[in-house]
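INTERNAL AUDIT FORM
Audit reference: QA-55
Scope: verify that the stored structure record matches its stored sequence.
Auditor: D.O.
Record contents follow.
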Amino acid sequence: MPAPVEPRLFALPSPPTSARGLRTRAALVAAARAVFERMGFLDARLIDITTEAQCSAGTFYNYFDSKEQIFSAVLEQAKEEMMHPGTPRVPDDADPATVIEASTRAYLIAYQRNAKLMGLMEQVAGISPEFRRLRHERAEAFVARNARSIANLQARGLADPEVDADLASRTLSGMISRVAFSYFVVDVELDEYPRADFDEIVRTAGRLWVNALRIPESDPGGKGQS
């Protein structure tokens, strides 16, 4: 028999069905994000969130059970933004190296926009097993998506066929995530800004991804792959 599934402490309830309910919930999540980014997770109180949202505690409890649950909702919203950051338009016939650089740029822009939350997630995960699991599940979503992309490139003969797609994804995704955390969270918190500019970070990260998978780059004229 399979092991029973452990209940989620901060599982999010189903979204409201009415337009008004959706607006109220969205306003609460936006207010919570502002409070968490301003005060941190530990110091933030429900009254701070309801005051920011200009609503009553009763209204809050119509949508969320606790501070932890609405923090989960804030993190989920940030994850969706970072999973689907709106990659800049690239030509349909663009080579994989160009697509990887565009995707890396979009992800890092989204990460920088959510950097305060990423720092809070690390802090809270350090003291809460439930949030450690949420952080792990978030990371797994990115790994799975990137593994599918790598496997697709391998199937098309455009990436090293001898590397395991899942392990390559874990390695490369971890590299990008750690670089982003270092530059956009740690250095900012310590008031030590990176020497490299944003474009250089994007170019270097994309180049390492391409080199690691032995992806051919287009020729100088852009007419094909070498």
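Auditor finding: record pair retrieved intact. Confidence is low (pLDDT under 50) at residues 1-7, 219-226.
Action required: none
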